């Protein structure tokens, strides 16, 4: 991806997030360890929107919740992209690679429709 | 992004993850609430790699840890993309929008080099 | 509690956990920051048991899951007690104090039976 | 512990937390799954206090942070106790049992002073 930034929105977002941190001289706080913690905190703010709901499907949400979920999804991706940047992981390539491993780990014929298999793997 | 999938690797990954779930008939388990929980669990597996390290910089890691971090970053993004898909959020647009709010929330002149400001905002 | 350790199982557990760490010379790794991360990782292992279940009520669990939940609850409490010990917080006193604040924050007449109130507070 | 409630502050706190929920008719929201999510959210609020700090030792904290950490520790224990109550786990017995397993898993002679062993186990 890195050699075709024009075709990659993940690379574009990486550069936007990197510039945001550099402009504020926040690289000093952005160690991989600190970014992993910050990511977990943002994801928990996302989880908080769903904790007392039945399923979180659209009909259970009001506009304030929809906007909050949208913003927490964005903040979570910002920290995920920033952490990947700091540890030199190309997220697109990493997902393509991991999804192949997931296909081997969860063969359709063994796990289709089974959450038990899902959790026991 | 959704109208220009060829230019969007986030959209390409969304489609790969969506197909993976559909082939296994896992949509029934992929409620927004369950996906938010699963995302938080994957992110914790990422955090686990850093919990006893000083900063998590590359020189503190061995190849086994680097691979683990790469895979957990991928799994985290997979669930983040899947959750965004289920709640109809375009992640690229959401991040562009949220980063503008972040620029207003953390003006360079007020927060430059200050983690205290960072945490107190 | 601290003045009546014999009547306090939280104090007894604090001493057991403290000794476990000291025997292994792990105090060096047990900074408040690292312990907070470790606690979040253990809690995620607890969450993992419930992520694909409907409610997590007993009839949805098998013995392997019940044992796993019991062990993750224990590990979570171990790190919570260890962190409280490192930051000099008496957990019993802290909960008594916080529950009084919670009573004032969530008056029965305003929040009875309402999850919306619950989440909006 | 359950046969000597008067000597158990964990049992006393369990009863206080149980009454708090019953008075508000919140048992309907307190499924094990929802409580596990709520616990993870409270723990993340605790983690948030430490994410940009070096170690979180006392000299890095101000009184506002000390109070915040105290309150988040309390809220985390409240949900941990509530969840244990809902899944019928005696936390004192569970920790005593798990610490014995931990002693066998991390023998002093093998892990003393080693975080690497710690993380690799």
UniProtKB/TrEMBL annotation, chains A, B, C, D:
Could you list the residue ranges that cross the membrane?
A: none
Q: Which Pfam families match?
A: MazG-like
Which InterPro entries did the record assign? dCTP_Pyrophosphatase, DCTPP
Q: What is this protein called?
A: Nucleotide pyrophosphohydrolase
Q: Which organism is it from?
A: Herbaspirillum rhizosphaerae
> Taxonomy-wise, where does this protein's organism fall, top ranks first?
Bacteria, Pseudomonadati, Pseudomonadota, Betaproteobacteria, Burkholderiales
């Amino acid at each position: 991806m890195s050699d075709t930034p024009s075709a990659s929105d993940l690379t574009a977002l990486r550069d936007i997030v990197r510039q945001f941190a550099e402009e504020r001289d926040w690289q000093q706080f952005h160690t991989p360890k600190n970014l992993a913690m910050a990511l977990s905190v943002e994801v928990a703010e996302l989880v908080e929107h769903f904790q007392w709901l039945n399923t979180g499907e659209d009909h259970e949400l009001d506009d304030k919740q929809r906007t909050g979920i949208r913003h927490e999804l964005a903040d979570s991706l910002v920290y995920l992209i920033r952490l990947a940047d700091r540890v030199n992981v190309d997220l697109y390539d990493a997902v393509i690679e991991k999804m192949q491993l997931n296909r081997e780990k969860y063969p359709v014929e063994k796990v289709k429709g089974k959450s038990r298999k899902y959790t026991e793997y």
